[in-house]
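Tutorial, part two.
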Amino acid sequence: MNAWTAQLDAAVDFIRERDDFLVVSHVQPDGDAISSTVAVAWLLDKLGKSYAMYNEGPVPERLHYLTGSERIQTNASGEAGRAYRHVIAVDCADFSRVGNATERFEENFELLNIDHHPTNNGYGLVNVLRSDAAATAEILYELIERTGTVLDKDAATAIYTGMLTDTGGFRYSNTTPNVLAIASRLIDLGVDGPMLAEHLLERMTLQQMLVLQRALSRLTFSADKRIAWLWVTPEDMTDTGAKNEDLEGIVNFPRNVEGVEVGILFKQNSENSVKVSLRSAGKVDVAAVSQLFGGGGHVRAAGCKVAAALEDAISQLTAAVGKALESHDASQNA
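Running the prediction step on this input gives:
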């Protein structure tokens, strides 16, 4: 038995030996977060376990097709919610990312931590961590297999969704042979790959288009044109009717400009609070940059929050990215 299968077996034991779970994921959930949540719930159903699902934020509308997503309780529901001793956290790079879900944890809670972010520090009683996995959903495919449970179309669709979104439609460098092999098996189970690609990657809401239009009008470059950024204000969100989910993917526009190494999206939440999303073309580890500001993520995709005015946040982040680029250049010329 290798270290990886030992992690999977420890997770299987955690689930089989306990009952009455709370399944949680990170705040402002994306495709992998919601897909992983419902995939775990599906497995718990198959194993005869009782559970509830919770997320501080709402399920993005474009993910409502996922079976079970309608049962994810949210902060918006206004329900007080009871406390749980047994918790399964999926796709949470660090413990703080579960948000106010901790209000539903018993004081002596036991947590199973399943994640693929390299910045995850193993905060669970049991940890299933694989930073070379494209998505947490990919890990769950192997976990479900380890239990001997046979996938059906609903579970297959959830896992495919998580992998599709976190690989950018199987285009990013995290698209490994294992990812494509799993995707092939899931399609054999009835997953409609072309429909999901159209729905998740191609279609845009009117609100998303309008807020993108505003953001692109502010596209700004560093002097050497290797860093590009744009920003969105609270007024933009109000005027266009956009939701947080409508901002997904906007950060790729500055990163995709030829010659740009790092693209950044700044979302101003309030006068002194800015959410930052970073995407790298490969030369800069944006997870390391984000960690300087209390955030984290992946080498090429990461984020953080900065307690500063918008102008200051832009100045701080672009300076940090600039230093990272200088460090890379120096290492190449050494």
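The chain has eleven helices and twelve strands. In part three we will examine how such features are distributed along the chain.
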